[in-house]
Design goal:
Layout lengths: L9 E6 L16 E2 L2 E2 H6 L8 E4 L11 E3 L8 H10 L7 E6 L7 H10 L5 E2 L10 E4 L2 H5 L9 H9 L3
Parallel strand pairs: 1-4, 1-6, 4-5
Antiparallel strand pairs: 2-3, 6-8, 7-8
């Protein structure tokens, strides 16, 4: 797949933390599929991204340069992971692709379709019928307004705010 030169300002946040309770606590990023780790496969979904932040422990080597971090607060869930990942981006992003490491079937084509769908909108996500799906968000006031603070809500409130359809 060719590099999309129109994707300037696109960055990725790959959620690779969590407790993997349904998998007896195994490190999902290190699971191999076809001789490659899930982390490497998922990083292939972001060839057009200016940069990618991996939110999870640095347990797997990557061939692509990425920034590793862990969510704050620890074990804070996917919203804490997303907000922590956004905070660690080195450059301002216009669009942020979000993907969980246990979704190896998501491709670069998926994120290109999401970018097209997000034109003139706050974001886009494929119809997931109640399942976890990749997502694309515009940065800006709405994303900042979702950030929980001591005086304003929890991570669950932030997730609801970010998930609202526009």
């Amino acid at each position: 797949m060719d590099f999309d030169t129109g994707a300037a300002g696109f960055s990725g946040v790959l959620l690779a933390g969590g407790t993997a309770v349904r998998m007896d606590g195994i490190d999902k990023a290190s699971i191999e599929l076809g001789g490659r780790t899930l982390l490497e496969i998922c990083l292939d979904s972001f060839p057009d991204a200016d940069e990618v932040v991996v939110v999870g422990p640095r347990t797997v080597r990557t061939t692509r340069p990425v920034t590793f971090t862990v969510e704050d607060p620890p074990r804070g869930g996917p919203v804490a992971g997303l907000l922590t990942g956004v905070d660690l981006l080195l450059r301002p992003a216009r669009l942020i692709g979000v993907l969980a490491v246990d979704m190896p079937r998501v491709s670069a084509h998926t994120f290109r379709r999401l970018r097209d769908a997000a034109t003139d909108r706050d974001g886009a996500f494929p119809g997931g019928r109640g399942r976890a799906t990749p997502a694309l968000r515009r940065t800006g006031r709405r994303c900042a307004a979702a950030r929980p603070t001591r005086s304003r809500g929890s991570a669950r409130d932030a997730a609801a705010h970010l998930a609202r359809r526009t």
